[in-house]
Write a structure and sequence with these properties.
The protein is 60% helix and 13% strand. By secondary structure, it is of the alpha+beta class. It is elongated, with a radius of gyration of 36 Å. The two termini are 34 Å apart.
Length: 449
Amino acid sequence: MILWGCSGWRHTTQLQGISPSDRMPLPQPAQRWLHELTDIDFTPWVTKAWQRNPSLQGALARLQAARAQQVISGSVRLPSVDMRASGSRSRSNSGNAEYYANSFALNASVNWELDLWRRLEARHRAGIAEAAAATADYAGARLLLAADVVKAWLRWQEAQLQLENEKRKRESFSHTLEVIEQRYRLGLSEALDVYLARENLATAEAKLVGREIQQQSAESILTALLGERPVMEEVPEALPVLNEEIPAQIDARALARRPDIHAAQQRLLASSARLRDQQRNLLPALRLTGSGGTLSNEFKNLLDLDYLVWSIAAGLTQPLFQGGRLRAERQLAQADLRQLIAQYAQTILTAVKEFQTALIADPLYARQETFQTQAVTEARAAAELALTNYATGITDIETLLNAQRRSFNAESLRLTTHLNRLLNRIDLHLAVGGDYILESLNTSNENIP
């Protein structure tokens, strides 16, 4: 069961008083489950995908852009300093005389807007939160890609096992056809038996082609995720077996670690900071400007402080009429915040739904697989007995063919059930943001490459 309190919902009513810190911690999706899930370590496969997948590279580029934007948003709180050097030479005439004059200047100018109403601080905090959200998006993309790779690998293995099962079915039906044709030549079977056996074999051949298509499709999906074609050294005997057990209780913080929830929360904080900025857009802005340098008609005097000139000024700007733009900007920020509050609440609801769905389905899939394994055992025994009885004339052709089909179909359903159980367990890890344990809750965003 999940221990879910009301703390996750308080964010929707207390956003105005929440500000992101300059170093926003990011709950990271731990990757221990990659090699503890089954008896196969999927880490090498996932590592290849992380290094080569174009979608993940795009998410990394968006993260880098968000962090650059964070620096830009913080730069407006600091003075801007510019250095300029200039020189000129002029000619003038007075009567028959020519006069030449040189002018050289070296100066620096400073511009600084004082953050009287903490508007610039709000913009900077919005940039910090947006960068934290982009970091969470990137962590989520890594987690989702890891899950997609493991799922694609399992489907590829299952498709190969299904293909092998269809090959055995074809061989079995081909052998049955030989037995029936031999009995027909001896006058022990009717022509109808031969036609039914041939139809059975042709149907098996058609399904075999379908399994080949399925196997090639699964391989293509895995190739696209890895950036290279996977190599299967030998056909596996069975799908991997689950190693880990689901804890009896999972703390609610495991859901809070989900990257999508963390990203939604940070975008809420960013929107709240932008609203604080827009709520003060009618207040005056105080700007200080200053400049200083040297001015001389001799280049050698540019560094001589005896030629120093300077000026300083202050200006107060009050917006009076903007055609309703400033009030509309506040309304826009308020609407954006309300929209993100709704999205945040929906993200939490979706997380709880995904977790509960995967958690409830896990024991059901286990029970289904148990019964399906029993069905395979009984169906195989029935097929063997039907073949023996047909050879002795006790069983008719329909009973024989049905028993054989049911035997291979039961094996196919058992493979599908086991695959669904594995995929559902991966969905459960996605629902809790990675591992069941909570060690990664205090991980800094700097640990994400």
